[in-house]
User: Which sequence fits this backbone?
């Protein structure tokens, strides 16, 4: 699991601080026994007392510090406590050499935790103070052999418990080193090792892991002089001395660049200027994900100053990420989309020395992608509307071809017959042909009305003006208009006081289409009844015909009814469904056993 950049260093310091606190507590508990077992003139009874200042030194060493002055004070106090622990351990070297030596080495290691020694290259050996920047290949930390020695002594003291007691001095393994003190020494050594890589404050940083890049907050001591300005600022030595040398001709500590090569300070200035001039946002981190430097574009992108970025860097992608979408939080609480890369920087041995995070602002690209997505969605909606319009056109063409063409053809043929044989036709035949023309004309008019209503329904222009409608009155009027004076096999079972809340014109069209459908496709007797339900009215139109085939049921309420053996159908049930839904009701179909069809309409009941 990837850990955020700043979390690694904090975790190391936290563990090291806990180790220092535990060691200090052990030393404090041992010091409380001094008054009972030590005479006033005697020495310290055990070197474990020295673990108290050693633990405090480790705890102070990992404490956070804001600013250069606080870091210097923290380093000074840690060194004082560490030297105090070493001094207390020296007082018991004669009586308990193993325990005292382990505590002495640990205290010295804590006192010079970041001091480096140059590797022997044939020149005079000199100590590289923390302000000098040394490469890992040419220097090593002085604390490393001291910590190794303390750990070896404590481990040997623990391993002596596995030997034969006869091989040990008088007193057994505790004569070499008590087991509790050996464990405390190991804990102190481990805490010092964890505190060593976590010391990323400017005062304690003895090197820049990336030659050629500037640190996030360089100290005056660590800022190298470069170029003619540095020579102008450097104090002149005695006559005969070279610039940059100590009085008396003693060479200074600043390394001299080989002939033909630019000084290190010039290379660093050039690399820093190059980093700041990049158009991409760049953040340089060490191996522990601590921020070393950011460029100008990074500060512009995040809106954070350098100190805020170094103290609380934003979440970064995992190492090895190349060109992936990421978001970087800004100081104002917003987030900017970026194209992020996180590359590891190896050293000469192939080990990871640090990381470089590069972010390219892709906010404009994201805006363009969102605009294209919205445009594509609009095109999809337009295509859906075009598909619906095309389906409506196809349905209308099919209906006109099948339903409208038949009455027009009948009217045309009958009118032609009357015109051609008017003188030869008797009066009763003339009346019959005229009646058929009138019937087909009325049928065509009703179909045109249905088409007009269909267009209004398809465009959503139908509005319902609901009023209390007496069901018995409307059903009886529609039945008489369709069947003439007789009932035509249509029975009505509706209470006279039963009313529904609906548009009267819409309800009349609904009843008319339901009865015409039952008369055209069903068989008598046809029953029309209405029942009261909870707050609603259920209108049922039932015939005794063959019913609706199973293959037709999925499209029975569509504009065009499709199924085996069916080329087309009227708009009756389609209009019924839309008008009932416009009035807040619903319609459904149920089969009747053993034969017949039943259409059920549910509407809101009108208040009494």
Assistant:
């Amino acid at each position: 699991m990837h850990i955020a950049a700043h979390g690694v260093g904090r975790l190391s310091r936290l563990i090291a601080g806990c180790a220092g606190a535990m060691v200090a507590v052990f030393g404090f508990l041992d010091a409380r026994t001094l008054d009972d077992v030590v005479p006033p003139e005697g020495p310290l009874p055990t070197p474990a007392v020295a673990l108290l200042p050693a633990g405090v030194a480790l705890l102070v060493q990992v404490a956070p510090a804001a600013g250069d002055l606080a870091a210097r004070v923290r380093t000074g106090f840690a060194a004082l406590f560490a030297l105090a622990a070493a001094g207390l351990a020296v007082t018991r070297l004669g009586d308990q050499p193993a325990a005292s030596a382990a505590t002495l080495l640990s205290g010295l290691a804590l006192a010079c935790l970041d001091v480096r020694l140059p590797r022997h290259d044939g020149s005079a050996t000199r100590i590289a103070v923390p302000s000098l920047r040394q490469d890992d290949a040419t220097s090593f930390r002085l604390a490393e052999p001291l910590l190794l020695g303390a750990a070896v002594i404590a481990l040997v003291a623990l391993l002596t418990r596995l030997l034969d007691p006869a091989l040990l001095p008088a007193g057994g393994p505790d004569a070499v080193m008590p087991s509790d003190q050996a464990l405390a020494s190991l804990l102190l050594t481990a805490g010092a090792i964890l505190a060593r890589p976590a010391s990323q404050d400017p005062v304690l940083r003895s090197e820049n892991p990336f030659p050629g890049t500037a640190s996030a907050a360089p100290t005056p001591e660590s800022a190298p002089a470069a170029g003619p300005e540095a020579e102008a600022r450097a104090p002149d030595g005695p006559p005969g001395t070279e610039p940059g040398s100590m009085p008396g001709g003693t060479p200074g500590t600043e390394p001299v660049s080989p002939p033909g090569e630019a000084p290190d300070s010039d290379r660093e200035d050039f690399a820093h200027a190059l980093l700041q001039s990049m158009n991409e946002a760049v953040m340089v981190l060490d191996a522990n994900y601590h921020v070393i430097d950011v460029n100008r574009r990074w500060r512009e992108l995040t809106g954070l100053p350098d100190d805020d970025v170094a103290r609380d860097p934003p979440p970064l992608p995992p190492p090895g990420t190349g060109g992936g979408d990421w978001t970087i939080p800004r100081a104002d609480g917003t987030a900017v989309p970026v194209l992020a890369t996180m590359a590891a920087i190896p050293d000469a041995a192939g080990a990871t020395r640090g990381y470089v995070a590069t972010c390219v602002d892709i906010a404009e690209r994201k805006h363009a992608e969102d605009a294209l997505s919205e445009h594509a969605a609009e095109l999809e909606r337009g295509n859906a509307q075009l598909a619906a319009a095309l389906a409506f056109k196809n349905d209308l063409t099919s209906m006109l071809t099948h339903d409208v063409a038949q009455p027009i053809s009948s009217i045309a043929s009958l009118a032609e017959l009357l015109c051609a044989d008017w003188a030869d036709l008797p009066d009763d035949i003339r009346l019959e042909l005229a009646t058929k023309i009138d019937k087909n004309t009325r049928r065509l008019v009703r179909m045109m009305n249905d088409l007009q209503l269909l267009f209004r329904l398809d465009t959503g222009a139908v509005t319902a003006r609901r009023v209390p409608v007496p069901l018995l009155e409307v059903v009886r009027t529609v039945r008489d208009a369709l069947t003439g004076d007789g009932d035509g096999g249509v029975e009505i079972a509706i209470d006279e006081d039963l009313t529904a809340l609906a548009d009267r014109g819409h309800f009349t069209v609904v009843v008319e289409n339901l009865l015409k459908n039952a008369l055209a496709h069903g068989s008598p007797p046809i029953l029309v009844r209405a029942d009261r339900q909870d707050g609603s009215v259920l209108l049922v139109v039932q015939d005794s015909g063959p019913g609706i085939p199973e293959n037709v049921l999925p499209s029975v309420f569509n504009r065009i009814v499709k199924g085996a053996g069916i080329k087309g159908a009227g708009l009756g049930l389609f209009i019924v469904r839309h008008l009932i839904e416009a009035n807040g009701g619903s319609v459904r179909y149920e089969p009747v056993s053993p034969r017949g069809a039943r259409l059920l309409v549910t509407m809101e009941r009108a208040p009494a």
Summary: The first strand starts at residue 116 and ends at 118.
